[in-house]
Amino acid sequence: QLQLVESGGGAVQTGGSLRLSCESSGLTFWRYCMAWFRRAPGQEREEVAIIDSGGSIKYADSVKGRFTISQDKDKITLFLHMNNLKVEDTAMYYCAADRPTGTWCHLPVSEGDFDDWGQGTEVTVSS
What is the average pLDDT score of the chain? Predict the structure, then answer.
């Protein structure tokens, strides 16, 4: 099991920026798919961004052009750079890992494929 811990959330005004981080307790995710999900108040959890073992990336339409998913060179930390934040971005943000056995993870993947989840970091955007 991969332990994931998110950080970097907080309160920001509309148009502001935040950088979320997801740390994997020193274990590399070199062959995994890594993702950010979010759950807004009263809504279902939704996919925000996914990066696979080869570096391919998929973004939700609602965040394209504003959010950037990335990872450090050692693939121990996952990041989500969030720019031009909107009120509708207010949510709990979760880091997740898809760890297929014996293979490298590649897009496409779905929410049900993810094996490990962090506890979340809260983002609140105010107008």
Answer: 96
